[in-house]
Specification:
The protein is an alpha/beta fold. Helices cover 34% and strands 10% of the residues. This is 2-oxoisovalerate dehydrogenase subunit alpha.
């Protein structure tokens, strides 16, 4: 007798996978059969535009000079303050040199009114938003001019004036805080539609993405459609742990897709690419009534993790010098 073939619905409506289609073929989804997410860039390592056919927004000469000066200022301050710690003038310091393009480039595409939750390698954000050398020194030397009155560790900057929440040492705690703040901002945006519509920006390293707070934050931000731009600074090392020992999948960007979040991977050493990716990420975060966006900025940590670390105990000095020479933002 002929075998009757039942009609198969084009899609299932299980509440846990509403867009899944039926199939009669048993097949596992294998991550190594999927192409890795590409890395967006505008400039190559020599600062030359890689594709002239792309119509990227023009950046004024004044803005380019400001970004360049801010990056150089951060780099020079890092050298001076690292040495100051070695001389016993301050107790602790963390360098962000080599990753300045991520902080400065992204800050240039945010509104000055967008709240920011940063980690400890985002000095460029404060520099871009208007922190002065005196502001930095007040915090590093714990003077009376420090808004925290010296109660916090060095490099744990914060500013209500510039709308940057005070940096905290525990890894990843700022990520769910940013999701919660973004939910509040969403309500404010809805209640005041004629006011400037804001997003929240949240920065963290790929090591912090190994914490449970990261996953809880992305999940709640996605399910509650919070207008937050998550910016992951993937510099290859979580203190002494290289990325090959941190995760098996395709970086941090693939996790955003898993949570249903619009995601892009960008060359973090290309400040124009970071600037453009953040500009579009902010626009996406404000679209459809608000939603999260994940930006994974790829870079390399040319510094020691902090003044308490000797990175040459777990990586070759020539590796660091090579990155400094050929791909410094």
């Amino acid at each position: 007798m002929p075998v009757k073939t039942a009609l198969i619905p084009s899609s299932v409506h299980f509440p846990g996978a509403v867009n899944s289609s039926f199939t009669s073929a048993l097949s596992f989804t294998r991550p190594n059969e999927k192409d890795a997410m590409p890395t967006f860039r505008i400039l190559d390592q020599d600062g030359v535009i890689v594709d002239q056919s792309q119509n990227h927004p023009e950046t004024s000469k004044e803005e380019l000079l400001k970004m360049y000066k801010d990056m150089v200022t951060v780099s020079i301050m890092d050298i001076i303050m690292f040495d100051a710690q070695r001389q016993g003038r301050i107790s602790f310091y963390m360098v962000s040199a080599g990753e300045e393009g991520i902080a400065v480039g992204s800050a240039s595409s945010l509104s000055p009114n967008d709240p920011i939750f940063a980690q400890y390698r985002e000095t460029g954000i404060f520099q871009y938003r208007g922190f002065t050398p005196s502001d930095f020194m007040a915090q590093l030397f714990a003077t009376a001019n420090d808004p925290g009155r010296g109660r916090n560790m060095p490099v744990h900057y914060g500013s209500s004036k510039f709308k940057v929440h005070t940096i905290s040492s525990p890894l990843a705690t700022q990520i769910p805080q940013a999701a919660g703040a973004a939910y509040a901002v969403k309500v404010q945006n809805q209640q005041n539609p004629t006011d400037e519509q804001r997003v929240v920006a949240c920065y963290f390293g790929e090591g912090a993405a190994s914490e449970g707070d990261f996953h809880a934050a992305l999940n709640i931000a996605a399910t509650r459609a919070c207008p937050v731009v998550f910016i992951c600074r993937n510099n290859g090392y979580a203190i002494s742990t290289p990325t090959l020992e941190q995760y098996r999948g395709d970086g941090i960007a693939s996790r955003g897709v898993g949570y249903g979040i619009d995601t892009i991977r960008v060359d973090g050493n290309d400040i124009l690419a970071v600037r453009e990716a953040t500009r579009q990420a902010r626009a996406l975060a404000l679209s459809e009534g608000g939603k999260p966006v994940l930006v994974e900025a790829m870079s390399y940590r040319v510094s020691h993790h902090s003044t308490s670390d000797d990175s040459f105990a777990y990586r070759a000095k020539v590796e660091v010098e090579d990155w400094k020479r050929r791909d410094n933002p």
